[in-house]
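Supplementary Methods. Inverse-folding protocol.

Structures were first reduced to a discrete structure-token string of length 128. This string, shown here, constituted the complete conditioning input.
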């Protein structure tokens, strides 16, 4: 039961995805094909290209590292789930087939709407 005193928790995830997309496009010159791509198994945050590579980007946005880093949130269970989503992506998007694929993780740390750090971890599936 709500007492009416709870503060609404700001949703920083969509803002982090927007920041990650801008970073990929403006700073790295990548092409982003899809944002929040969905299939029956779930959702991929960003699908991009770096040269010939198809890069699936998992974005984790945090206010602090109090409960671990954003990158640590992409644990073995999450990586298995992302592999399944990537397989679904490749089955349903024929234009992406035959290209090398990798998973990158972008951790964004924000406080009061300001980005304090952006960390880009390439090939988070270790050459999947």
């Amino acid at each position: 039961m709500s007492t009416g005193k709870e503060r609404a928790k700001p949703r920083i995830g969509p803002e982090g995805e927007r920041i990650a997309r801008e970073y990929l496009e403006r700073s790295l010159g990548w092409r982003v094909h899809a944002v929040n791509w969905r299939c029956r198994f779930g959702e991929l945050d960003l699908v991009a290209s770096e040269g010939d590579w198809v890069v699936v980007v998992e974005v984790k946005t945090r206010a602090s590292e109090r409960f671990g880093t954003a990158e640590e949130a992409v644990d073995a269970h999450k990586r298995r789930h992302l592999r399944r989503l990537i397989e679904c992506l490749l089955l349903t998007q024929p234009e992406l087939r035959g290209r090398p694929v990798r998973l990158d993780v972008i951790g964004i740390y924000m406080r009061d709407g300001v980005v304090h750090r952006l960390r880009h971890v390439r090939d988070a599936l270790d050459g999947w």
